[in-house]
Fold:
Amino acid sequence: MAEPRTGVFICNCGTNIAKMVDCDAVAEAASSMPGVAVSRSYKYMCSNPGQEMIAQDIADHGLERVVVAACSPRMHEPTFRRAAETAGLNPYLVEMANIREQCSWVHDDAVAATEKAEDLVRAAVLRVAHHEPLERLTVDMCPNTLVIGGGIAGTTAALELADAGELVYLVERQPGLGGNVGRVDLTAPYLDSARDMLTDRITRVVEHPDVDVMVNSELKRLDGFVGNFKATIAVHGPDGAEEERQVDVGSVIVCTGYREFDAARATHFGYGKLPNVVTSFEFERMLRAGRIETKEGGLPQYVAVVHCVGSRSEEFNGYCSRVCCMTALKYAHEVKSALPASYVSDVYVDMHAFGKGCEDFYRRSAEVKTLFLMYGKGEHPVVRRADPGDDCEMLITVDEQLSGETIELPADLIILMVGMEPREDAESVAHLVNISQDKDGWFIESHPKLDPVATTTDGVYIAGACQAPKDIPDSVAQARAAAGRILGKISKGKLEIDAMFAEVDEDRCSGCRVCNEICPYSAIEFDAAERRSHVISALCKACGACVATCPSAAIKARHFTDAQIFAEIAGVLG
Amino acid sequence: MTFEPKIVGFLCNWCSYSGADLAGTSRIHYAPNIRVIRVMCSARIDPTFVIKALADGADGVLVCGCHPGDCHYSEGNYKTMRRMPLLKRMLADFGIEEERVRLEWVSASEGKRFADIVDDMTERLRELGPSPVKMALAGDAGER
Amino acid sequence: MASDKLQIALYWAAACGGCDVAVLDTDEFILDVAAAADIRLWPIAVDGKYADIEAMEDGELDLTIFNGAVRNSENEHLAKLLRAKSKLLVAFGSCAHLGGIPGLANLTSRDEILSTAYLHNPTIERGNKTLPLPESGVNGSTLTIPGFYKHVYKLDDIVPVDYYVPGCPPAADQVKAVLQAVVAGDLPAVGSVVGASDRALCEDCARVKSEKRIKHFYRPWQIMIDPEACLLEQGILCAGPATRSGCGARCPSSGIPCRGCYGPLPGVVDQGAKLLSAVVSVIDSTDPAEIERIVDGLPDFVGFAYRFGMPASLLQRSVRQ
Amino acid sequence: MAIRANPKLIEELEPYGAEDVMKCYHCGNCSAVCPFSQDPYVFPRKPMRNLQLGLEEKLEGDLDPWLCYYCGECSDQCPRDAEPGETMMSLRRWLTSRYDWTGISRLFYRSWRWELGAIILVAVITAIAFSLFGLSQGSLADYDGPNAFLPSSAIHIFDWALAVVLLVLLLSNATRMWWFTMGRDKTLRTSLGGYVRSLWMLPAHFLTQIRYSQCDRKAPWVTHLALMLSYVVMLVLIMFFLAEMASGPSIDWRVHVLGYLATAGLVVSTILFLRNRTKKSAPQYQHSHESDWIFLVLILVVALTGILQHILHRSGLDVAANVTYIVHLSLVVPMLALEVPFSKWSHLAYRPLAIYLAHVRAIALARSRQGDEAARRGAEPATPLRAA
Structure:
């Protein structure tokens, strides 16, 4: 084939490149490369005059391809693509040769560096000849959203979206909404009622015209891609009947929350054996019932709260569950106000009083005369039944760090602050919506700091304690953030998809299905009827794994085709 | 004069290519023998590319990707990890020395590491001498 | 001798003869051929001499069906001769198309082959040191035998080829199809592969395919093969996904993995490399040590991956000096 | 060996003034700023911890509270307003009531009504008793001479009788103190020699209170020393020179000098203390326990009535002088009989004793440590074994 007319532009980058690479020589050498119609060396290609030069040459010489030898494409590829676009050349017909970061800056032999620069330019020239003009795709954004989980995060996200006038499908596995917060009495540090918070939200959600609540339901399948998901939901009727519903959604928010650590696993606390050793959630039930009492129905004189049960231990979970410390202090307040004659002790490792109002709350807990006992990280208190003569039912033995003594603490009621764990179904949920879990099983956000609500799968967001242990304000914030992100997408109406993605040549695909398992984004869909595999371009992130794997060369990586890379190989090898 | 090998490097865009860029921005010097070809993910590196590079006259091929577990595409580098062992065995059957093809994990922050790898590989290949492939393919033209 | 009949030649170079048998497998159709054409050369079937061919004018033959690789000077001579005398030269069967089984010899050297075949083979009479010589004097006169080349070549390494009919051997009905096409004169673009499809063998393979995750590779005799499921998914190395269909998936349908005789698919520059990429990319492990163990289940992969296409591969041969 | 915590103990301590202990979260600033806190006596953090946990026996056996002079630095530095200084003070009160086997001290400290009531009762009894005695053998019109209403010889005998009683009480309590802090600690390897060699510390510290001067603030030490010395001087005068003081102008002037000085000292220092406490001028004056007020007021009024009586007597108004004398005595007696063994006064004895015992204890601990070292060394063979 006749090579397309190509322009080569060698940037001196002031002296950054020129001091080690003989740019004029490279430009000279380039001029005799296949298809090269014009070849220049210039001080700053990225400067406005530089970009105008490119645009001008495209017009004057009718260039069909452009090669810019300059810095890293990770730096200025967008710049030069724009420059070409202004001159009416498809941006994907531009190729860069990195002769700065990977040549002039890393070598000290001018001759060798210049030689290398020539090779890199040749590679770019040969490669760009195989480039094709590419257009970005746009797909419609379905404005509906699927919210999985009806806890504080789920209901919040649902309301946020519905109040903005968008339709929300809220799927809850339990018969009722509210999740774990629904099991709590008051909340730290302001001691306001969780019930009041929830009931208001729940009634609003249930009555909201734009929220379709499905309780006793679970997500069965999620097909499609961002803006165009198809969700299959199984709704269990009261009589055990199961009805399947199919809904179209553009986005998914996973708010599946957490489950509490099983206290029986930490045997040294005697949970399950001693009747008056209870978990924080069992104690919340007492508080909600408005009566703190022992199993025997008596009023406890000594109440002990044990922190970090299942958290921050080598034995169980290494992480901090974040809400227990303040909840424990809350118990001190609630017990004291219910039973002024009682004595409350807090057996803790470290007091984590982060967050708004929490330090003050910790201070105030001294006013109710809470006795704090500190045990060492990696150690654990041991609970045993008290001896007959004692004025208490149980004794907690603690290697107390602040006194350096081994202390026996009297107790009639022991509350174990059980930590948070990923739900038992977290893995299956992750698989359903194609997101990943970290080593502890929490769902992974797309960036721990800069993008804590999105996931590696476009259109799937996470909010609440399913991502990591979280308190109510953080869960709510994350839920609203996710909702906000979705509303932003909805308001655009359309989604733009990068022009770089893989495509299957169906005249070549034999349906061997080798590629199906390869894609980390499940972007390859097998059409059983046609016996062909398709790439869902909106899901494809253009890694090219399937392309390299397809034994029939039936999959093509746009902008990274075999032909382009072969040309590049031939180019660098002169 | 000593023999100067030509190395073709296939680097993933997100970790290794950035790592190589970092070597540049930190002005870490290394041997000019390598020619880098950028791919989005090491998983895009078809074994054919490696063989093609050797057939086209490369004295060595360096394949770099994100460290296992850190792949930008979450699992891409595992494909590379699976392909290389058998590829190396096969190339050995063709009589190509093991050192000529090398797989390394280089993160975006490991500019120094990348430079060291290139220097080390260049040195080994200098000792090893030119690739037998080119000579074998050129050699038989006349004599059958 | 002038005739309006189709002038054809069939030649057998470095090959096993299976391709000729494949032609005979067309049964009575061969009689139609005989009726429709003058077979000017076909060593196994008709009496024709090289001299007759040499005497021909260039292009006198309408069609030469050439099977076998080029292994020695005689093969090369005939390849060039027939090319010159034929309007159409068809590389027939894997050996002519890609180098075929003989091509595997490229993994060793001429000397190794000769010493194994004539000196160290268990069936060699002890003490016999006779090696074939290109020329030898026998009572005054000189006997010559064809020169044995260092490497095996596919036909188009030696001469330009018009069409390729893949297969080891090509399926009989494909042979028919080709001959009919020639007779009818409706031929595809020069250089194309005929008698095969542009899709992989899996297209024709009836076995049920699903997502592939391989934890262990087996030789066919090591496990009870599920007759319904894809062989590769069962851990049996099958070249099907990397091989042109056209044979009707005869091997897999009879429980034998595809060996790849129909050659690489269009756009694939190295069949072995592609097959390699396909089968190991779906290994179900992320642990280097385990991966090595799993790959141990693929002994002599090079021999399998290039069984029919060594001379057509990127490297073409062992590069040991 | 595990120690049983007693969350209730803190409530027992509250009436003694320990109200903010639970606020302490053991940053240790208090112990860091205290000039006296050093191994093996680290406080106030440690005693506060023992108090939070209710480790009764440890607290009882603790000398630390007596080593504190309540300069108030710790309370200043405390980030939690846990009042470590006041806690130490409260512990001293509590310990006093622990040392006292009669239980009266506990009664006084826990209820000022009881203390005041007892004082008034004793005062009334004293007044009546001395009036009857006076009328029975003399005339109200005579202050001295053969017909004296309250002849000094008789009062002298009474003084000594009372002194003996007080001494017995004080000694028995001091013994209990020794038992709690030293005696019952079996691990402690004290030696009689240790006790004897350090005996000098008792009078020395009693008279100088030199440790107090190590506090950053010096003023309290001076006032405190002044009050204490005046008190002691007056005590000595009364116990040995009562006759000279009582009888007319012919007596030795030197007696007067000391008497006037002591009286002045008492008046001035008590007034100063009262002023400080009302003004809450320094941290150690922030929290005044009822017992503090009673103590100071009592000394002051004793001093004032003493002065008044002296003036009246010198001005020849014998009747008035005698009446004042009765009042004076009815204040002196409760002050001595109640404050000395059962209340604040007692610390005058306990503190130097504590310093002394602490010293002996420290030496003993040091020795036992060295002993352990030696024991460890002994465990290893002196010379390495050689193969024969």
About this structure: Residues 197-321 of chain C form one domain.
